[in-house]
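Work Package 4 report. The design task specified in the project plan requires that, given a folded chain encoded as structure tokens, an amino acid be chosen for each position. We show below one input record used in the internal validation round.
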């Protein structure tokens, strides 16, 4: 983000505001930060200055800066069937707006869709994950990660909302999901491309 106008302090709440444009797409965005948070991280010597955005826009920016608008940000999964990729991206979009329960529930649903895509349609999700492992579709490590998604996702699916769900919980689940999709779809696709490239080089003696 590039700041395009001078920062200013709002009258209410002690928040600092900076108008910015995205260096990638050019769309406008607003950066906001609480004065007490800025002071805590000591982005300037002494009091917070109007240059806070430049000072804060470093490695701690995610702790200091709140961006508007809060557009959900998904994630692209190449070589994954479109309907599964879209659902996985939606899980990440939920995470980006701090809808952690929804992110976890979507991750669990993606596992169900993957099992069906691989021909495993009978039984509950636990048995489907084990069947994928038995069929060699996933490794024991990926099997364990998939079950972790299932454990927490079951609480969301069954309406057990008593225990709090935080960012770390959802982040772990989405990390496991990304590993699962990489192992099942993306790594095999990458290997196939490398094999095809190797064959093409072999067919061309001058390559």
């Amino acid at each position: 983000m590039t700041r395009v106008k001078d920062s200013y302090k709002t009258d209410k709440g002690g928040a600092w505001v900076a108008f910015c444009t995205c260096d990638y797409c050019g769309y406008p965005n607003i950066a906001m930060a609480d004065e007490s948070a800025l002071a805590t991280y000591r982005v300037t010597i002494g009091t917070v200055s109007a240059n806070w955005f430049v000072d804060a826009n470093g490695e701690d920016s995610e702790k200091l800066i709140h961006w508007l608008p809060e557009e959900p940000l998904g994630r692209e999964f190449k070589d994954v069937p479109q309907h599964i990729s879209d659902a996985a991206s939606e899980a990440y979009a939920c995470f980006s707006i701090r809808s952690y329960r929804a992110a976890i529930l979507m991750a669990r649903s993606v596992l169900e869709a993957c099992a069906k895509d691989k021909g495993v349609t009978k039984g509950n999700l636990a048995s489907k994950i084990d069947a994928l492992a038995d069929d060699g579709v996933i490794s024991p490590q990926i099997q364990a990660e998939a079950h972790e998604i299932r454990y927490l996702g079951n609480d969301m699916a069954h309406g057990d909302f008593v225990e709090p769900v935080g960012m770390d919980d959802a982040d772990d689940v989405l990390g496991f999901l990304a590993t699962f999709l990489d192992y099942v779809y993306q790594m095999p696709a990458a290997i196939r491309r490398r094999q095809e490239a190797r064959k093409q080089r072999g067919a061309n003696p001058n390559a």
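Strands lie at 2-3, 8-9, 15-21, 28-34, 66-68. Validation will be extended to a larger panel in the next phase.
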